[in-house]
Each structure stands twice: as C-alpha cells, then as structure tokens.
Amino acid sequence: MELPASIPTEVARADSQHGNSAHSGSKGGTVDIEIASKVFHTAFQPLPVLRDVSLTIHPGEFVCIVGGSGCGKTTLLRIVAGLETDFEGTVSLDGRRITGPSLDRGVVFQEHRLLPWLTVRDNVAFGKTGKNKRGKQESDRRSPASPEVSHYLALVGLSEFADAYPHQLSGGMSQRVAIARALAGRPEVLLLDEPFAALDALTRTRMQEELLHIWQAERTTVLLVTHDIEEAVFLADRIILMSSQPGTVRRIVNVGLARPRDRTNYDFAQVRKGVLEEFFTPPTPLTTAQGRSE
Ligand SMILES: Nc1ncnc2c1ncn2[C@@H]1O[C@H](COP(=O)(O)OP(=O)(O)OP(=O)(O)O)[C@@H](O)[C@H]1O
Ligand SMILES: [Mg+2]
Fold first, then answer.
1. How far is CA 291 from its chain centroid?
2. How far apart are CA 247 and CA 55, in angstroms?
3. Measured between alpha carbons, how far is 38 from 68 in angstroms, rounded to an integer?
4. Does residue 246 have a cis bond before it (omega within 30 degrees)?
C-alpha cells in the first residue's frame, strides 16, 4: 500500500504534477536493496535485526527511513554503505553489487566525526579511501586548495570558516562540514544517519532547508534515517516506515507535496498526521482459535 488512508489523494497526485521525486538528469545512482535476513550473533543468542527488506531507490530520489529505536535503521544504512557485509541477500548500486565501502557512497553519521587536529578545509579535503567503480582501491583525498573543496565549503555556507578547527564550530556547523566532506567525494548516493538529531530545533529546521538546497544542487540520491516524522515529511519523496523485531518495511508513503514545503500548510499537516497514525497504530492483533483478538 502506498499511502495511509487519511492522506488525501490529491496530495498523492501532486507528486507527479510537480515532478518532485527523482530528478530528470540526476547524477544519483539506483540503489536496489534485497535483504532476506540480517542476524547479529551475540554472545547470548542470535539477534534477527532485518528480515525481507526489499526496496528500490531511484536516481536522484530523496528517501527517508523512519522507525522505532532498535528496529535496524542504522544496520540497513551500514549495509548500503558497505560497512556491514554479513547478511543474506544483495544490495547493489546501478546494478553493481555492494561488497564494501566505496567512493560512490558518501556517509554522514549522527556525530560529525571530524578530525579535531585538521581545519575545516582540511577535513573536507581529507576524503576517504575505498574502491572505485572498477573495483580498484582509491582515495578521494584532494588538495585543500582545490576548487572542489572551496565549492563544497561554499555550498554548506562555511567559506569564512575554512581555517577554523572543529572545536571552534557549533554542532550545526560541524554537521555541515561532515556533509561537505561526504559530498566532496562526488558520491552517487548520500547516506545520512540521523544527521541532525543532536541539534536544537531551530538549527535543525535550518539544516533541513540547507540539505534540500544541497540535494537540489547536487542531484544525488539520498537515503536519510530519522526519528523525526516532520523532518521526513519535509524532506522526502518517499518515507519508508519500518517495524521492528526483526526490522522490516511496514509501509511506504509517497509524500507527494510540492516543494518548497510549508510545515504550517493543511496538506503538510495531513500527510504528517497520516504517517503519525500509521506509526502509532499497533500491528494487527493475533486472532485466537475462538475468533477473539488478543
Ligand atoms: N554490532 C552489533 N552487534 C550486535 N548487535 C547489534 C550490533 N549493531 C546493532 N545491534 C543490534 O541490532 C539492533 C538494531 O540496531 P540499529 O543500530 O540498526 O537500530 P536503529 O534502528 O538504528 O536504532 P536507533 O534508532 O536507536 O539508532 C539493536 O537491537 C542493536 O542492539
Ligand atoms: Mg540508529
């Protein structure tokens, strides 16, 4: 099913009218996720974390994953990042199976993970090492003086802080550096795990708007994990609602609102209400042999 019942159909149709989903001419990649099962083998017992997660993310699409704590969102993102490879199933980018970290996927974690001894410019330039499309080990480390580094610093609005050190930045600024660093590798897919969770509400709102500008400028495919339903409705083309134990796709919501989105608008509130209701609706109760619900 594509939409909660409470979301008006005209909102759903707006998606195609406004062409807001995948960009035409996008440089983003297609992510195909087919995870039959992911189990962590702990000291006590096997812990099934993901089961039957099947999902295609289209080039240039902005997809948000929403789900309760512990339902496997980070694990799913780590699998797409290639940081977690022990699972049953396949995950591929543009038809190439993902077997490890690669330069074609940029990752932003909840905490910025900047190197404290490097300036902002050097952090963005630092880049990462991984396999390129031809499977060769490569580094996207670049000269701090390169125009690309300056471009991404400008894109996240931090040109004036290029020579600052991470301890001189606010939380929002640090996350913007982390986003610039991820983008500097010119990835086809940007993976973000609750990137704004540690920020205050105002900074968070501003960062969401900035992320949208960046996405519109860079036209990458984006997969973002969040706990915040309003954030997901504001950002996403599609919202993947996950249920837990083991984590699986509970429902996919096509947001279908024109951009720029207005959080105070009726249609926005309707979509948010629909997602919230779905989120807090308990799973269908089991029926006993006597026909009573438990
Ligand atoms: N390396 C690991 N070894 C064993 N268990 C793990 C490991 N990583 C995660 N888990 C377990 O897998 C489950 C899913 O974890 P995950 O971090 O993917 O959840 P999440 O949905 O991102 O949660 P949150 O919203 O709190 O970040 C949890 O029960 C967690 O304890
Ligand atoms: Mg997590």
1. 42
2. 13
3. 17
4. yes
d(CA 254, ligand 2 centre) in Å: 23
Helix (H, G, I), strand (E, B) or coil at 108: strand
Q: Write down the CATH number for the domain with range 9-104+188-279.
A: 3.40.50.300
Q: pLDDT (tens digit, 9 = 90+) per residue, 171-215?
A: 989 999 999 898 888 899 999 999 998 888 888 898 899 899 889
d(CA 16, CA 2): 14
3-state secondary structure of 69: coil
Mutation choice for ligand 1 from 74, 109, 229, CB with most ligand atoms inside 8 A = 74
* 77 vs 148: CA distance, rounded Å: 26
Q: Give residue 278's identity as a one-letter amino acid code.
A: E
pLDDT tens per residue across span 61-118 = 999 999 999 999 999 999 999 999 999 999 999 999 999 988 899 999 888 789 999 9
Tell which residue, 242, 283, 272, 285, has the closest CA to residue 8. 272
Strands 105-108 and 62-67: unpaired
pTM listed for this prediction? 0.85
How many Cα neighbours within 13 Å face the side chain of 208?
Answer: 26
The one-letter amino acid at 64? C
The ranges assigned to domains in the chain are: 9-104+188-279, 116-186
Ligand 2 centre and the CA of 193: distance in Å? 7
Which residues, listed in sequence order, are joined to residue 55 by a DSSP beta bridge? 33
Which of helix, strand or coil describes residue 62? strand
